[in-house]
Design brief:
Length: about 400
């Protein structure tokens, strides 16, 4: 079977699936603008032929960039077709528009789309947090228009895959019966508890078992509850005078609005509480290598994961796999993976006082919550393990799609 992966920055989410299919004997190749690629997977690179139109209507700007990428990808696909290549299955991340016209190049090929999120003007992430709400009609129009690319994908795909049931539930009802729910997968053999782990921060040596509070995100921003975490921190540190805090994340913005000009969300909320903090115990590690990030999880006595109703971050399930006691926000994506009092603890996203109460108790009584850490690890292995669960399901889905048995 010939399988073509399409991702602007290949391999992206396909770094495990593409090689696994190749090892299974399939003919695998990829198309991309950028990305490091995979040594064993042949890749066709292409470039956009033009930039965005100057002074285009603001609501059309995002969609136009996707059309430009889709056009460039289709042109490269036509060259491949003329050279005799036709895939049986195209596996695409449609987030940047690359796949828009591939079914017109290869009508008989089956298109499997990775569907991460369908935006809504109300009820999900937009205006979830009143502190940053924007009820302007122009913002609503912008949000609604962001779905144009994905709607075209939903119309042209043969099947879709969504990572969680929450994300699946954001998609239009008319398409849900043709979308499977399969998580990306966590390498739970590598992401595991390790009682020998040591982390150094600002000259301090922290070991597994020490009173360490952790908070991790790609970037420190409101979408992932950084502001609520920082507001809870002064009281946590007062009540737990021996606690050390490790904060991992960059200064940029992954989701939502940018910080005011010349500022970062990280600094804004640090400044809000810094007079109440002991700076010697709060360690901002920035962005760190993956192995170092795993070490942070392995020394954690309590790990906080907060998010708007949005795409669940891998770090939540990786923290569970590492055997962390996760204190998460009682928002839909987190509730799906953490059961309160069984595999972790849940708090109101908007209640820093409640967060401080729960975290302080967790830091004070590690033995009392040991069973939650064990259950979290068990759940991660049973439901989200890469080799044992997710990868076989992904491969089976592609085989069924190619055979026409879905």
């Amino acid at each position: 079977m010939k399988i073509l992966f399409v991702h602007q920055n290949f391999p992206g989410q396909f770094k495990h699936l593409a090689p696994a299919l190749q090892r299974a004997g399939h003919d695998v190749c990829a198309m991309a603008i950028g990305g490091a690629g995979l040594q064993q997977v042949p890749m066709v690179r292409y470039a956009v032929a033009r930039g965005s139109t100057r002074d285009i209507h603001p609501l059309a700007a995002d969609f136009e960039t996707k059309l430009i990428r889709g056009d460039a990808c289709a042109a490269a696909a036509l060259r491949m077709k003329r050279e005799g290549y036709t895939p049986d299955v195209i596996v695409a991340n449609p987030g940047w528009g690359e796949n828009l016209y591939l079914k017109d190049v290869w009508p008989e090929s089956k298109l499997l789309a990775l569907l991460e999120f369908f935006y809504a003007v109300r009820g999900l992430d937009v205006n979830f947090d009143a502190e940053f709400a924007n009820n302007d009609i122009g913002n609503a129009a912008r949000v609604r228009t962001k779905n144009a690319n994905l709607l075209l994908t939903l119309d042209s795909m043969n099947w879709g895959v969504s990572l969680t049931h929450f994300q699946h539930g954001t998609l239009p009802r008319a398409y849900r019966d043709h979308i499977s729910v399969i998580f990306d997968g966590i390498d739970t053999k590598s992401v595991c508890p390790d009682s020998t782990t040591i982390v150094t921060a600002d000259g301090k040596t922290l070991r597994a078992g020490d009173e360490v509070l952790t908070f991790v995100n790609r970037n420190l921003e409101p979408y992932r509850g950084y502001h609520q975490f920082m507001r809870a921190l002064p009281r946590i540190l007062r009540e737990r005078p021996n606690a050390e805090v490790l904060i991992v994340g960059g200064d940029e913005v992954s989701y939502g609005a940018k910080a005011p000009e010349g500022q970062t969300w990280k600094q804004i909320f640090m400044d809000e509480v810094k007079a109440e903090l002991d700076p010697a115990r709060v360690h901002f590690l920035g962005r760190i290598p993956y192995a170092a990030y795993l070490n942070v999880l392995q020394v954690s006595r309590c790990h906080v994961y907060l998010t708007y109703p949005f795409v669940l971050g891998w770090s939540c399930i990786e923290a569970m796999s590492a055997g962390c006691l996760v204190v998460g926000s009682a928002t839909a994506p987190v509730i799906e993976v953490i059961s309160h009092g069984q595999t972790g603890l849940l708090v109101d996203f908007f209640d820093p006082s409640a967060l401080a109460d729960v975290v302080s108790d967790a830091l004070a009584k590690p033995q009392h919550y040991l069973h939650l850490r064990t259950a979290a690890r068990t759940t991660a292995v049973a439901r989200y393990d890469l080799e044992g669960q997710c990868l076989p399901q992904q491969m089976q889905l592609i085989e069924h799609l190619a055979a026409g048995t879905l």
